[in-house]
Structures are given as structure tokens and as C-alpha cells.
Fold this protein.
Amino acid sequence: MSFGPPPSAYTQSALAADQNRRRRRIRTLGAVAVVVAAAVGVGGWILSSMGGDGASADPKPSATAQSPDDIRELTEKTPASPEGRLLVEYREGDLAKTVKGDPRYAPGTWATDKVLAKGMADRIEGLTTAATGPEKAYTLRLDGHLCATSKHITADGRTAVVVQPKRAGAMAERGVCDEVVFFDVDTGKKLWQAKMPSATSAFVTNTNLTMTKGVVAVAWGGGSVAYDMKTGKQLWNSTTVSACEDNGFAGGRALLVLEECGAQSPNPTYRVEKLDPRTGKPLWTYKVANGVEDVYLPSADPPVLAVAAGDSSVTDLITLDGAGKRLATISLTGYDPKCGERDFGAGFFGTVEYCDGVAVGRDQVYVVSKETTELRQAANWIVAFDVTTGKAGRKLDARPSQPLTPVQADGDGLLVFRRSYSEIEPSSVARWDPRTGKETPFLLFGFPADDEGDFADIEHSDILVAQGRVYFAKRELTADDKHPTYPVDAVLGIGSAAAQH
């Protein structure tokens, strides 16, 4: 399928409007910073409500050294001051030139200490994270629109995407996604690209991409392929006709594949295999019970499955041990795992690894509850479950009308986003320790009033914490009805006001 025409350069009028809006935005966020400073200073009420000041509870960075090809794992260091400062602000222009009502898709968000990279239609925009200087570090033009992205990035800042190359004639109408591009996030340099073998049935609706140490892997139902991360050389592929199809991979510390058996039958079944990343050979197989309608893989190590048992929505989490044996089943009654719910459940750009209401650490699984509309009750809460036993541990409550979102596991804790609708109390990211129940402020900040809903909704935006900063990046962009020629807000990045950038 096609994603519409590629974007062109800003018009002069759009640039002028963008500059004016940027000045207003800086003033708006500056005013929020004043509110944050007041909140911190007047009685320390915002800090005390989170369980103390951040200085004494700063977690130490991970002591385990990672090789360049490892998938990056860092424990975030609490900023010296939680007062937020705007570092990245990017707007996308020429949206009026897309088909009316159709969005411009913007999948993929990755961060290093120097650059925030954002997928944008048929290119990657590298945005500088310095408080001053040029907005863009680079633009990496691709051969076509993005079809699949990975949330993973290597320890030295590389990642991969799948592209739908532009073609002429009948192939243009098919919209086949068969090109893998591996690039450096800091520089925007394309390190290699490869054509996926026999990928005539790989489309934006079914292509899934992941990475594990030294390996890039892609699956599309009709086949799968893995490449050496350094050279781009094909390591193995599975494109032969089989009763079981590779629906997608989960990566990180290990490589899992989700296989659907009898996909054309009325009652298909599923199995999950751990693979040797270099050969594709199964190390163990876990057969999912009959009657399960869908499966997601929110974590490869520890292995965690999210299953829809007798229902179209996910009903349970299943944790496995290192040999693929079931450890525990966690019922999700009353919880909101948000599997397959991104962007109205369209299923674009790979969904197998994404359950936005679930975060998985080494020995804890964090799940967010469904939201409540009761005014005096917590809007929702997050519970930490033990991976081995499945037993519920501590609970972190939201405030009334201020829901929580689990962002990502962080060492032995969890980074959470507290969304505020108040004009006085800012939104925030905090670190929660499920062993002690202590919550440490990380960053406090506000949103522009006209964009808060989109930026703060994890079903429509990537929310990423990296290198002491928090980023909000929309995955779909549409022109403003009243001002269709204006650029629209696409990315916000916030760092500590006390940090030197």
C-alpha cells in the first residue's frame, strides 16, 4: 500500500508561521517552568508527594559493560534538578499536500546522548539535543516510506528500519516492503541496506522488525530473514511453504519468534520459539494452548507472552523460564495491557513487541490498570508482579484525574509518566522502586495546551526516556483544519534545567 507523496521543503509562509509559533511555545513552556520551580520551592509539595527528593535516591548506572553490538540497556541517572527545560522541538510541514484526511506516518523514535532520531514518512530526521544551535543534525533520505521500525538501539547507537522502495508499474500498486536499512543514529549515515528474499507478501500491515546482539531480524508471515549487524550479510532465512508462519520477532537480550500454525484454518494455533540468532535454529519451543486468538511478546528475556484466550483482547500474561517452561499466568482482569492498540489498532509498522500498558524488568512485570472516572479515586494504578511466581507486589497509585503510564523498566525500577490536567501541577516522569515503594522525581514539565492530548497519549505517541531526558514523538501527523499550511508539532524533548547541554 502507498503512504502518499513524500514531503517537500517548507514554504516561506510556513517557515514564518513556524518561527512565530516557536516563540510563543518557548514562552508557554517557560511559564510552565516557573510553575514547576514554584512547585519545587514552595514547601516542596510536589517532591514530598512523590516520596522525597531525588538526590538521595539516585540509582547507580548499570555496572555491566556492554559491547557495541549489544542492545542498549542503561539505568537512568536522576537529573540534578527535576525542573524541565525544552531541548527539542520539531514541526513537520507541507501536510496539506497529503491526501485530505490521511495522516503522514512517523514511526520510530531513537535517542542517544547527542541526537533524537525520528522516522518521518520516507526519511529519518536527526534532531540535536543541545539547548542552542541548529535544530537538525541530519536528514537521512530513504528509498521509500517506512514500513517497520524497531524500538531497540545498539549500545553504540545504531538501529534498523524496513522500507517500501518506490517502484514503477504494477509493483508500485502492491506496496511491497522488502528493503532493510541499518544506520547510525548519531550521524544519519547509512551503514548498509539489503533486499529481503522472496518478500512479495511483506506489507506495512504485517512486517515486524527487531534486533538482538549482532543480529537484525525481520518477519512478515510469509517468511523471515536475519542479517549480521556489522556487515549486512544474510545469516539465515525462512521463506519455504510451511504449516507454521513466522508472524514476528521479539528481541533485546534474546530472540523469540511467534509462529502461527494453520493460519488459513478456522482455528489457528500459536507457538513461541527461542532462536539461536546466528543460525535461526530453535533452542526451545512453547506451545500456546488451543483457543488463544492472539499472542504478543512484550519481552524476550525474561520471556513474557501476552495472550488473548477466548477473546480478541489480551486476557493473561504468561511468564516462562530459561528453558521455555511456564512459570506463571497473570490474569489481566481489570488491567489495560494495551497490546495491539497503537494508532486505533491499525497494526502498522510491527505490533508483536508492543504492549504499551506493560513494562518488563529482570524480575518484575509492571501492568497498568484500566482507568476510572471516579473524581476522588486514583485515575489508575500500576502493579508490579513477580516474574517467577506471578504474585502481585506493590502498587503505585495515580492521583485523581491524573493517570499513570508505564514508560520503561529501569534497572530494578520503573520509569512512569504522570499526566496532569492541572494548570498548577505539572506533568512528570518519575522513577518507582517496587521493592521500597519509593517514587523519585525525574523531570517535571508542561505541554503546549493545544497538543497535550496527542503527545501524552502512548497509543498515539512514542514516550521515551534516555540519557536523562524525556521525549514525546507523535506517530501520525495531520494538517490543522483551520491552518492547513502551518507546520504541526511532531516532537518534544525535555531535559533538566540544571544540566549542561
